[in-house]
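Two records follow; treat each independently.
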Amino acid sequence: MTRPAARDAAPVHSPMQPAMQPPAPLPVLVVAGTHSGCGKTTATLALMAALTRRGLRVQPLKAGPDYIDPGLHAAVTGHPGWNLDGWMCGPEGVRRSFARAVRAGEPHNAPHSPPDIAIIEGVMGLYDGASADGGQGSTAEVAALLDAPVLLMADVRGMSRSAAALVGGYTRFDPALRFAGVVCNRVGGPGHRDLLRGALAAHCPETPLLGLLPRDESLALPSRHLGLAQAHEVEWASLATRLADWFEAGLSAAGQSLDGLLARCAAMAPAHSGGTAPGGANGTPEHLVTPPSPAATATHLEEGPARRVRIGIARDTAFSFLYPENLFLLEGAGAEPVFFSPLDDAELPRGLGGLLLPGGYPELHAARLAANAPMLASVHALAAQGRPVHGECGGFMYLMRAITDAHGTRHAMTGCLPAACRMDARLRALGYRETETLGASPFGPAGTVLRGHEFHYSHLEPAPEDAPPGPAAHSAQSVWSLRDRNGTPLGPEGLCAGSASGSYVHLHFGSNPAAARAFVAACAAPGDIPCP
């Protein structure tokens, strides 16, 4: 498949020449699973690898709040993976996130050429989301909002005719969804393939069988307590080739080809996929601010401050969980992201107005973080100067006095916040979260609402009574009150002391872009910026 010439920039034509045809719709494919663990991440990576090997530019996206899968996507395609989440950002937010992803490129670089295809990996099972009686937060919601065709990934291990019942149930459950076809995963030998072909042809003739992927345990990705291993821990040079070979062989086993799949995606491309989709924000919580359109964001970028505000953002193997859209919105508000490594750099970059410390795996690198005393002191000094410093989950842990790892070893951290944490063997919290600030903060006035998610194995330990106070001798307070996905109050959460704050919640600024603008403004303001 060659790159679609219809999406290239159109030359200027004279009145005597016919006008160019409008750009062809961007092919979009949602890879959805029957359930978690059915192999959709491996299959998605394999499809991306096969397309990239053809020389196509693939824009990867991920349904749900996951950080690790987008990193894997980026390793295979060479392009950052964006998240689409209806619960955190609302329906119109999903459409705008998609439009930004296919138009913006890396948030801190120049715009790139348009993609040839967008591949969206689903989350959990196709219809699993934030509730049992609705689709909010599900892969199905994302597919419906974008009118994108679904490629159903079915784990058929131990099944023959039952696979048809499984596929038929999924494809007929929601008439609003369009299905490009089904790919069977973990298929056995020739006899199993014949049974699957016959069963699906007899009972699901309306759903094309596009692939029969054989069982291959050598393609399994390593995992740990928070999910799959991160992209930098995998040797992609050989794995990407083996994944692409495996996927194309699975297509061939079903009598299909990669060219045929691409043609199907092009024929089913959503009419609006080249731009922002029409429609309102039905279902968007009224107290959440709808993200601005890409055009509005571009205008804001042009009208931003003459001097962009340098904001330090931790980025290394210990801190890597940050949504590309958060960077996009921070830059749109006038930020100049300045990346640094708490593991390897001796001090913070110069001229910073504030810091953001994303989540990650500081517990796996706690000894190295603790050994880098100059960086610990540099972060503490910036917070003591009254500049906004905020940490999310792993970044929150780094701002504390100490982390006690899974082996019981205590490692000193920055001490910006008067707390310490300890790793547990079991999961301490998991789920969507809605936050509401308890007082004025760098994210806006009291009552500012943002959405995000929480996923961690550590817990806070009580601070010793004789512990020294936090920066600027301010006593610690909670940052905000929490509600779960159903609106049930969970009580106060997070800590702030002076201008330093932290929380186990990973925020998505797409849920309230005004918070990104407020944070940049706080970093640009002179003097101390106290938290609540």
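The next record belongs to a different protein.
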Amino acid sequence: MTESKIFISSASLLASLLPVDMAAQNKKTETKRPNILFIMSDDHSYQTIGAYGHGLNQTPNIDRIAQSGMLFRNSYVGNSISGPCRAIVLTGMHSHMNGFYDNGGKSVFDGSQTTFPKLLQSAGYQTAIIGKWHLVSTPTGFDHYCIHTGQGSYYGPDMIEPDGKKTYKGEYATDLTLRKSVEWLDGRDDSKPFCLMMHFKAPHRNWMPAPQKMDMYEDATFPLPATFYDDYRGRRAAAEQKMSIDKDMTLEWDTKMLGIPGASENLEKAELSRMTPEQRAAFDRVYGRIQQDFTARNLQGKELAEWKYQRYMRDYLKVISSVDDNVGLMIDYLEKNGLWENTIVVYTADQGFYMGEHGWFDKRFMYEESFRAPLMIHYPPLIKKGGVENRSLVQNIDFAPTFLDLAGVEVPEQMQGESLRPILSGKKQKIRNALYYHYYEFPLPHAVKRHFGIRDERYKLIHFYYNIDTWELFDLKNDPQEMNNLIDDPKYKNVIAGLKTKLKELQVKYKDTEPMNTYRLDREQVGIKGFGY
């Protein structure tokens, strides 16, 4: 079934959904149990959120959540890839426990297992997920869902709803996610608390900006990261990846230069064919000019690599701007409807992302830029003073137990995370001493080796395995950019021994006691090429 719509801006959409005479006092009295709004973007790096202070861009609306709540400086994931991160969030368990290991192999999310939305639903919450799902199976535990097919499209996206698939011709995915979320909130039973998971597709590759954002950042020049020309000395796994801006970022799909001979992914067939004539005209006006300049310059070598970096940064940040706009519109909606003070509002991403560090885009590695994810939480009844920063080691296994704890629902024993309540209330500064990580998705699509590891407050120890057997140790205090592998330095013999002992303890705690044998079926063996990268 196809639903045809004319493209209009998010602001216009929300204005039409918020009549002037709508006021909080006309709503039914909310229960004291908190509402939950979990906002997650796809591949949003902490480096590109204003509140984290890197200065690459401004995100005034996302920052509002940090300014009224708590910003986490050390928030991490358990497996830095989209689908697995989402499964971890839902279940509060690491990948080897919830069964969803990667984005394109044998992994299909088992919807029969316990998730926090199911438990909230049983406790009287209204639940919905709108936007990106990326877990293959049909969502369970939700009163309503409206989800992208696979990775989804930026333009005219196909969405799966309980009554079938619909195509929203003329709409931009980020705006649509906001519109559908507001519609669901308006239609709910407001005598009950809600849990809404609002998941933006953006800013996932290939970073297609909204029509009104096409010109943004075109006059900006971004500084090259200090590690852009990393030579990966002493780090074999880092040297053998295929996520280099220079070598692996494509001219057609990624930088939007059309008609490149031998291009493996056809931008014209994919995103551009989904645009309305007006949207396509906006694209051609900006990117046609860029392509003319690119063709005339005939860039090679470092000049081409640095040109690709600038194109990547500009398009990525354009897409982020739309996310920020829509986060602001949702906050406005909560405020106007008397929901802001009693709603737990979370902003995070499914993992971190490389903004040219080590010469890369994408994620996957246990290195800081992809292992670390942005996190900020607003909830006035618990966070008494807004604008607080916290440096505790927290992880995405902690979301499920936190939501259940704050909603007054018993946390199942199998959940492996910890409730963040003590941290949010200011009663405790840390809930763990070290983090565990395990990544499985090799060899496709970016050839990042399978690996697991431990990170404490100063050191990180990683073991790369499967078709490789190497260890890496980093002193994060003295080497925050992780350039110097200390595994063979005799000065760190005792540190390494202690970390290996702690690593085994964590593997026992999280029941990953045979980490190199947990996931043995390769995609090549089952004939699956993968989807939605």
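Discussion point: The chain is about 30% helix and 15% strand. How would you locate this feature using only the token line?
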